[in-house]
Amino acid sequence: MDVNLSGKVVVVTGAAQGIGRALALGLAAEGARVGVLARDGKRAQAVVDEIEALPGEALALEADAADETAVAAAVDLVDRTWGGLDGLVNNAGRMRTGMPVLDTDVAELGEILRSNLVSAVVCTKRFAPLMIRSGGGRIVYLSSAASLQANAGGSAYAGAKAAINSLAAIVHTELAGHGVRTTALVPGLTVTPGMREVVTDEHLERVASRYPGGRVGQPEDLVGLVTFLCSDVAAHVSGSVLAVRPPVDR
């Protein structure tokens, strides 16, 4: 099975650290030309430097993934540099727990929705036309196991990620006729800088005891599946929600 991505252009959002960085490096290692989109241009460039050292080909895209004007400029830069788009990985987002419904901070709720859901909608809206013009491609949406659970205090984040699952299916319905395939990935607990800010060591140990090998996920654990999805081998996989987790991880 050949999942070589040589010549394909893939943009990864939220790619300065964590899952996004791991996916950008992994896709580049398989031959993809990678657009590294992040709010912090210096950190995006640092990932580009890592990719070029592989060696690989990459482009820093400084943009807030939920800012339509900034994303439109990133699309234009990708188009001018590479002339098309084959893949988009909507990974940008921020985790938030510990906010019960009755204690909801509406401003914080809005920020969680903006970071996770609005960013995915904006990037889909702006990048998909370039993908369609290129003959189609793959959009991967990074969801979360929280979207399938009823964890107390998680309504804002879980609600945003549940909407991502629906968004992937809806975009498939709307764009499959243009050759655009979609998948929502539902990772279990994955160790990232953002996750470490809100999850205790005790919780990590408890979840790890239920995982294969006694450990929770690492960003690199998602690289193989995303590489497969962005390849031509996965051409018949679309509109689905794929869980990358044991049955229980809370």
From TrEMBL:
GO terms (BP aspect): monocarboxylic acid metabolic process
Give the UniProt keywords, A-Z. Answer: Oxidoreductase
Keyword Translocase listed? The answer is: no
* Record carries keyword Metal-binding: no
- Top-level taxon: Bacteria
GO terms for molecular function, please?
oxidoreductase activity
Q: Which Pfam families does the record match to this protein?
A: adh_short (PF00106)
The portions of this protein that span the membrane are none
Tell me the SMART domains matching this sequence. Answer: PKS_KR
Q: Where does the Ketoreductase domain start and stop, copy by copy?
A: 8-188
Q: State the family named in the UniProt similarity comment for this chain.
A: Belongs to the short-chain dehydrogenases/reductases (SDR) family.
Quote the PANTHER family the UniProt record gives. Answer: 3-OXOACYL-(ACYL-CARRIER-PROTEIN) REDUCTASE, 3-OXOACYL-[ACYL-CARRIER-PROTEIN] REDUCTASE FABG
List the protein's name. 3-oxoacyl-[acyl-carrier protein] reductase
Q: Which organism is it from?
A: Pseudonocardia endophytica
